[in-house]
Amino acid sequence: MLFKQQALLRQKLFVLGSLAIGSLLYLVARVGSLDRLQPLCPIDGRFGPRGQDEIPLRALQFKRGLLHEFRKGNATKEQVRLHNLVQQLPKAIIIGVRKGGTRALLEMLNLHPAVVKASQEIHFFDNDENYAKGIEWYRKKMPFSYPHQITIEKSPAYFITEEVPERIYKMNSSIKLLIIVREPTTRAISDYTQVLEGKERKNKTYYKFEKLAIDPNTCEVNTKYKAVRTSIYTKHLERWLKYFPIEQFHIVDGDRLITEPLPELQLVEKFLNLPPRISQYNLYFNATRGFYCLRFNIVFNKCLAGSKGRIHPEVDTSVINKLRKFFHPFNQKFYQITGRTFNWP
């Protein structure tokens, strides 16, 4: 009998001990999570005066998952109201250039806790059918964000579409405009490569780059070929300058963004009046892919799609030299207008 009572007592003590340890572990975890959510670095500058409505940057980082759920359409009106979320028109737009690195730039800027990106290209200003739907349709295509965050979208076709500058000006004459460029000949070949890959997936044939880029009748550069025309950056920029001063543009070096992204991103932070938050910790080189991937925190990493960094077809050297000679005077004028010089041949 005594033995049974002792065994029963040991069993009760074991249960009580387990409950006590479990409670202690819960409290430790709870205190730790609360500590992580303490305001560490409030948004300053252009995001308004410090006060009760201010959203700490660290808190914004921890709420990315919540914003993701809202982007997927899983939010109720009550949840949106409770979390003070809004769908804002963009305060900055990446307007181009196609195959210059617009997706990489957008994803890298999204590392900043005060930036929220539109995941898809909206094509509002360059598509007449979409534009006819009105500005509220455009706003509803934007992601949910907190009032102190800025929304950024990118649609590379904006840069080369004639109607777009005036349309964006009518929406917001003081908007910030980002243009990411690469060496023009390399960009044109990259443009061709993307189209070629699409044709091959559909088992369709396509002309060689040389035949498209050079007019067979004159043996001169074919300016009617869209990939060539897009790389004449100064021609398109001059159209934009009829509506916006050069101070509202920031030129990003797309070639440098591939090899040395942090300095380029820091320049963009400054242009957008964002507090500097993107650091080398957020960027790590993936030797397998051959370019930088993104580290949002200790848990969440992201690499760009496998389609990035396509291998370009071999192009006749004489054609490359002819294109570089053709682009040279346009490049010089582009340097003069923008105040930024590139080491393009």
Automatic annotation (TrEMBL):
Q: Which residues form the active site?
A: K99
User: Topology versus the membrane, per the UniProt entry?
Assistant: Single-pass type II membrane protein
* A cellular-component GO term for this protein: Golgi membrane
Spell out the Gene3D superfamilies in the cross-references. Answer: P-loop containing nucleotide triphosphate hydrolases
Q: Where are the transmembrane segments?
A: 12-29
Subcellular location per the Swiss-Prot or TrEMBL entry: Golgi apparatus membrane
Keyword Transmembrane found: yes
- Does Membrane appear among the keywords? yes
Give the Enzyme Commission number. Answer: 2.8.2.-
Please provide the record's keywords in A-Z order: Disulfide bond, Glycoprotein, Golgi apparatus, Membrane, Signal-anchor, Transferase, Transmembrane, Transmembrane helix
Instruction: Give the binding site residues for 3'-phosphoadenylyl sulfate.
Output: K99, G100, G101, T102, R103, R182, S190, Y292, K308, G309, R310, I311, H312
Instruction: Please list the residue ranges annotated as the Sulfotransferase domain.
Output: 90-334
Q: Which Pfam families match?
A: Sulfotransfer_1
**Per the similarity annotation, which family is this?**
Belongs to the sulfotransferase 1 family.
- From the Swiss-Prot or TrEMBL record, give the protein name: Sulfotransferase
Organism from which the protein derives? Pelecanus crispus
